[in-house]
Amino acid sequence: MTGRRTLEAYLLLFLQGLTAAAEHDHSRIAARVLNTHTLGEHVAPHWRLQEVMRWVPPRAGDPVFDGRAAGIHKVAGTAVEAVVGGALHQFVSRGHFALHASLADAGAD
User: Fold this and answer.
1) b/e string for 29-42 if b means 16 or more Cβ within 10 A?
2) Buried (b) or exposed (e) across 74-109, using 16+ Cβ within 10 A?
3) Angle at which helices 72-91 and 94-108 pack, to 10 degrees?
4) What's the pLDDT band for 66 if we cut at 50, 70, 90?
5) What is the rounded distance in angstroms from the CA atom of residue 60 to the CA atom of residue 66?
6) Within 10 Å of residue 55's Cβ, how many Cβ atoms?
7) What does residue 77 show for φ and ψ, rounded to 5 degrees?
8) Cβ(102)–Cβ(64) under 8 Å?
9) CA of 41: how far to CAs of 24, 77, 80, 89, in Å?
10) N or C: which end of the chain has fewer CB within 10 A?
11) What is the per-residue pLDDT across 47-63, written as a single tens digit (0 to 9) for each?
């Protein structure tokens, strides 16, 4: 949850800083960009998360079955959120953590 909120907070801050920011619905953009499937499809491969994930499709070995239908992107997207949350928890001071949490809570409303 912390990783997802952090991603949303930083994305919203980034979007608000753009010159044409007032013309767009930031919450809609954030919802589409931070969709778990989207994160798993586009971010996870760049971070090579599939190489370290211990997840296999429920019907692995079925030649007609592709991993996407089983949720590989959903699982990888959740892993992206977990990595961001873990990095925030591990490497950011408690003061910054409180700031990020309050920013994320404000963005969620």
Assistant:
1) ebeeebebeebbbe
2) bbbbbbbbeebbeebeeeeeeeeeeebeebbeebee
3) 140
4) low
5) 9
6) 14
7) -65, -40
8) no
9) 24, 7, 10, 25
10) C
11) 999 889 887 766 656 66
Report pLDDT for 107: 55
Whether residue 69 has pLDDT greater than 60: no
Contacts of 59 (CB under 8 A, 6+ apart): 65, 70
Tokens of 17: 């800083």
37-48: average pLDDT: 92
Percent of the chain past pLDDT 90, that is, above it, reads 22
The length of the chain, given as a count of residues: 109
